[in-house]
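Could you show me just one protein sequence together with its fold in token form as a worked example?
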Amino acid sequence: MTTPKLAAVIGYPIGHSLSPVIHNTWAVRERANAHYIPVEVGESYDCFARAAGALATLGFSGCNVTLPHKENALRYAIEISDKAKLAGSANMLTFGHNGPYADNTDIIGFKCALETVLDEKATRRRAVIYGAGGAARGVVIALRELGYEKIIVANRTPDRSAALVEKLPGTSTTPWENRNEALEGADILVNTTLLGMTNAPALEVSLDHLPAGAVVADIVYHPLETALLRSAKAGGYQTVDGLAMLMHQAVPGYKAWLGKNAVVDDDLRKRLVGALKARVM
């Protein structure tokens, strides 16, 4: 009997994570002898380092990393991908012969999710991002790769916006109180804050300045349809929810650790929506 392939997701808290549903669905589909488990790890770097080391010792191929450990993953890694360095965070650790390798697949995850709704001829002149954390940095990198010419960041804490702009030249900032007016002429709005998430404050925004035909994306997936996305759909805008990004970012990890066939499709989405509904109930 072959030894099962093992991988995990580390975070705190971790009970909300849908990553086990994604990876275990793919494993069942191709009858892979593979298992993916959630591991709750305390917030400190020491807790993270001990947990990651234990997983490697136990024969795990790697792990996904979610809040609050994405920066801890960079600190722990021996090797770091260029994208993870640029984003300043990692959501993926692979335990190889040379030690832990950190990567950031949130970037490709958002890029692939957006490509499902973007027309090749769609204008890509101006993008507006709400938020300036690690997720925002990943979104900026993805938008730059997709050819957006001007990227504007609005954040409640100006210092964080300034830090993002310094790290990622070619972006600019606008005050949080000007977030509605900043949508004038924008081709896409992306919310990377936790505003609008279940049990979080509401995201107060008006789309009156956003041109027709623009795309509205929200990386939040709990709830699946945020108030922002409901408003965008009512206004006739194309929308991208956080579940799309979550599914696509999981593909590289599954292929690196557990199996070969990681297909993002309607069946996988239905399973995740079902899991979300079960947790609400």
Observations:
- Residues 242-257 form the longest helix (16 residues).
- The two ends are 40 Å apart (CA to CA).
